[in-house]
Amino acid sequence: MAKKIIKDGDKGTKLISVLSKNLDGKMNKARIKFLGFFICALCKVQTVSFQKLASAFESAAQSDSSLRRIQRFMAACNLTGERIEIMNRFIRLFGKDRIDCLTADREFVGEVWIKYLNIC
What we know:
- Helix content is 64%, strand content 0%.
- By secondary structure, it is mainly alpha-helical.
- The longest helix is centred in the N-terminal third of the chain and has 17 residues, at 29-45.
- The chain is elongated and about 50 Å long.
């Protein structure tokens, strides 16, 4: 049987279709489409640089517009709960005494996160 070649644009369309089937009713269609573009761009450029990701979007929109979409999406994400869950799991498995230091970048912000680290 001949191997079917899938073009890059087809991959994005197929991913958006799969995401739509699984996330319909849980996320609006524009957000699902964005997520499909975002995942494909991550696979292409293999970096988390928002500027590079935006330029890799398979969209008719200009790169600057895609960049603003990425920034809005990331601003709406609250990862504090996930960070706390990861820290609690690590402490449960290995103990607090195994933590020598915690290195953070500009995304490790927020009152809840800082309070957690202070009482942890």
